[in-house]
């Protein structure tokens, strides 16, 4: 038996109901796929937001799916049913670095996701072992560049591994400053920081939140943060752009959905999560992690990710890093 569109509308069933309305009515929770292990800053901030949006979106659960540098979890999001009930985290690694780092990717970072909003940005910081900096009479970023130019190949820097954010920040620094320093990769950020603290390497690009305690204790000498402006958390540290014009690199992450997710669903998700990011309680909590909430539109986040993907292509290729 057929029924006309007019008759369907007259029956009282809303043709324009959100795509997720039936599922939400059945009490199904939204899940956020975090492509990294529990306990890290991405996981912590995702859980904080999940708690903040429960009044507007209902139950939101976090599902950690680490593996393959974040690719495993991101791929689950890309291939999920596009009904707004499975969303995930897009990060610098998964959506800007890995597409150029891995020989084979399970998803297309530019086509398989619909942006929701950028959550946060976390400054990186150029740090030296304090004793090394004192011995070499390096008190500023300009001093470091001048020393490297005067003594080619005398400096080295550590990172959490080939293709890591710290490695690529160092490569970008070398390129823009016109200097050379030997890269020494370690198996993770903590070993890289321990190597710096023990004087095995001369400088690192580290996460500001990770380095802050040792900066305040005087064990590390902070030369500059890598964001365009100084960090509100440690405003006494200059921005690299004050010495090297237009230098800007930071760690970021945000929320994405499968590419075919309906526009009204994305709009509702954006509204809820942006409101959560702008809440004073959220701002205060994230400030403790030295993370800066963003909360932009889906279009702005999409344009930003596209720009980052393009920017990292040359950096990764110049670094020679490759995962087969």
Summarize the structure.
By secondary structure, the chain is α/β, with parallel strands linked by helices. 43% of the residues lie in helices and 19% in strands.
Give an overview in words.
- With 324 residues, the chain is of the alpha/beta class.
- It has 14 helices and ten strands.
- The chain has helices at residues 5-10, 21-25, 41-52, 54-57, 71-78, 92-101, 130-135, 141-150, 165-177, 189-197, 208-216, 263-278, 280-287, 298-319; strands at 30-34, 60-64, 86-91, 113-129, 156-159, 182-185, 203-207, 220-225, 250-258, 292-293.
- Strands 1, 2, 3, 4, 5, 6, 7, 8, 9 and 10 form a ten-stranded mixed β-sheet that branches.
- Helix 9 links the parallel strand 5 (156-159) and strand 6.
- It starts with a helix and ends in a 5-residue tail after the last helix.
- The relative contact order is 0.18.
- The model is unreliable at 1-23 (pLDDT under 50).
């Amino acid at each position: 038996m057929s029924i006309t569109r007019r008759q369907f509308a007259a029956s009282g069933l809303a043709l324009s109901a959100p795509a997720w309305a039936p599922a939400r009515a059945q009490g199904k929770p939204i899940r956020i796929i975090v492509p990294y292990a529990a306990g890290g800053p991405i996981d912590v901030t995702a859980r904080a937001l999940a708690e903040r949006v429960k009044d507007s979106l209902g139950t939101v659960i976090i599902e950690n799916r680490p593996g393959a540098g974040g690719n495993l979890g991101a791929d689950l999001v890309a291939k999920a049913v596009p009904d707004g009930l499975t969303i995930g985290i897009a990060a610098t690694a998964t959506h800007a670095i890995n597409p150029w780092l891995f020989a084979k990717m399970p998803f297309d970072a530019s086509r398989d996701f619909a942006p929701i909003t950028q959550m946060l940005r976390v400054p990186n910081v150029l740090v030296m072992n304090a004793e090394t900096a004192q011995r070499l009479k390096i008190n500023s970023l300009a001093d470091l560049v001048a020393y490297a130019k005067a003594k080619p190949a005398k400096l080295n820097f550590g990172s959490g591994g080939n293709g890591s954010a710290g490695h690529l920040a160092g490569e970008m620094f070398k390129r823009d400053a016109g200097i050379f320093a030997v890269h020494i990769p370690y198996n993770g950020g903590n070993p890289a920081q321990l190597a710096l603290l023990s004087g095995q390497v001369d400088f690192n690009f580290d996460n500001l939140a990770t380095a802050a305690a040792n900066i305040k204790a005087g064990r590390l000498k902070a030369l500059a943060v890598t964001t365009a402006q100084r960090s509100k958390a440690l405003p006494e540290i200059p921005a690299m752009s004050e010495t090297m014009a237009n230098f800007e690199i930071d760690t970021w992450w945000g929320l994405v959905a499968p590419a075919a997710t309906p526009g009204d669903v994305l709009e509702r998700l954006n509204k809820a999560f942006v409101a959560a990011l702008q809440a004073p309680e959220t701002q205060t909590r994230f400030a403790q992690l030295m993370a800066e909430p963003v909360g932009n539109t889906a279009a702005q986040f999409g344009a930003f990710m596209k720009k980052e993907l393009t920017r990292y292509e040359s950096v990764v290729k110049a670094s020679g890093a490759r995962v087969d």
